[in-house]
Design a protein that fits this description.
single chain, 399 residues, alpha+beta, Beta-lactamase, Peptidoglycan synthesis regulatory factor (PBP3), Domain 2, 2 domains, five-stranded antiparallel sheet, 36% helix, 26% strand, globular
Length: 399
């Protein structure tokens, strides 16, 4: 009798365990198959390093030696443009402001828009010179205007790199001209591109294929974008090319289709044709195999902040950047939750853009992404009169 009971128990145990193990093995095999397929991708065979990522989520879709330190050439100007856009946002410079070109800025070699020493040009035109023609002279002129000197601007560049957590990037100039100790990686360039695209208006410049500076004058200058994909690949609207004999051909490109924006970076390609081919192949892969669903737009109000001692009784809290989900085509994610988490003990005053919380995107209990929430405007301390009025009104309501 005991043997019969033991035999039945043995059979029941294996009938329960075997299907679970088989399912686990099937899932593991499926994951291994998907991983093997991804490992077999060879999307940038002509480049020394590469990366492909989705902008909103930062999810890496493909990489090849993405952390290898290499000279970035004029892709350096992505960081230069980040600081230019931040200076515009902060009101340190204005688009219609004229900048006087120094002797040093005018002396820059390499790609240039042929600025003359003492010439005055509007910030918006200099920015176009940087974004479209990769002008070294325009880059230095704006760097000197923002920071006072090229050296001070380079310090700002390296400080921003550290702020972004870029461990394999070091700048010696704002142009990308060859210099010892000036390097970056495909991964770091991707992060910088993601940061620059928070200022989506930059694509109004980087998407220009050709245009004119000093139009209608005897010094009229025709600009042609060094990124030919702007014209020949639908959806490409930036960002920056690079070339030196040491760096070879480099490109950080971005393209948008529907609500999906991706960034593709290559360094060290042997020809412009191969550089563009590698980037095109990565963009094709992204748009053919992935979809996104946008949950929040950039600067979309998510919550309101009420601080007792703030001048503004109700403060709009907005997303710092767009928030999206990315998934393989035909496999949308279900059971998505969004959680708003506000910081405690928020100190006044606050500047527009200061972080006061975050939005968490959660799938089946796992946090997929965290995006900062920022204040939409400056928030000062309330005056004594404002505090007195609030206290008085509160007392009246309680009566």
């Amino acid at each position: 009798m005991k043997k019969t009971i033991l035999l039945l128990a043995f059979l029941l145990f294996f009938s329960a365990v075997l299907p679970v193990n088989m399912m686990a093995e099937e899932n593991k095999a499926k994951q291994n198959k998907e991983q093997t397929t991804e490992d077999q991708l060879n999307l940038a065979e002509n480049s020394q390093s590469a990366i492909l990522l989705e902008r909103d989520t930062g999810k890496i879709l493909y990489e090849k030696d993405a952390h290898k330190q290499l000279p970035p050439a004029s892709m350096t100007k992505i960081m230069t443009m980040i600081l230019i856009m931040e200076a515009l946002d902060e009101g340190k410079i204005k688009l219609d402001e004229k900048v006087r070109v120094s002797d040093y800025a005018a002396s820059m070699g390499g790609s240039q828009i042929f600025l003359e020493a003492g010439e005055e040009m509007k910030v918006q035109d200099l920015l176009m010179g940087v974004a479209v023609a990769s002008g070294n002279d325009a880059s230095v002129a704006l760097a000197e205007r923002i920071a006072g000197s090229e050296q001070a601007f380079v310090k700002m560049m390296n400080d921003k790199a550290r702020q972004l957590g870029l461990e394999n990037t070091r700048f010696q100039n704002p142009t990308g001209l060859p210099a010892e100790g000036h390097f970056s990686t495909a991964y770091d360039m991707g992060v910088m591109a993601k940061e620059l695209l928070k200022h989506e208006e930059i694509t109004e410049y980087t998407s220009i294929y050709d245009g004119y500076l000093r139009e209608g004058t005897e010094d009229e200058f025709w600009l042609v974008n060094t990124n030919k994909l702007v014209k020949f690949y639908p959806g490409v609207d930036g960002l920056k090319t690079g070339y030196t004999s040491e760096a070879k051909y480099c490109l950080t490109a971005t393209a948008k289709k529907n609500d999906m924006r991706v960034v593709a970076v290559v360094l060290g390609a042997d020809t412009t044709k191969n550089r563009n081919s590698d980037v095109t192949q990565m963009l094709d892969y992204a748009f053919n195999h992935f979809d996104t669903k946008q949950l929040f737009k950039s600067n979309q109000p998510v919550s309101k902040l009420k601080l007792l001692k703030a001048a503004n009784e109700s403060i709009d809290v907005v997303t710092e950047e767009p928030i999206s989900l990315i998934y393989k085509k035909g496999k949308p994610l279900e059971n998505i939750e969004t959680k708003v988490v506000m910081q405690e003990d928020i100190a006044l005053p606050l500047k527009r853009g200061d972080t006061v919380g975050k939005v968490e995107i959660v799938h089946d209990g796992k946090v997929l992404s965290e995006t900062p929430l920022v204040v939409k405007e400056n928030v000062d301390h309330a005056s004594y009169l404002q505090l007195f009025k609030r206290t008085f009104h509160t007392m009246l309501k309680k009566q």
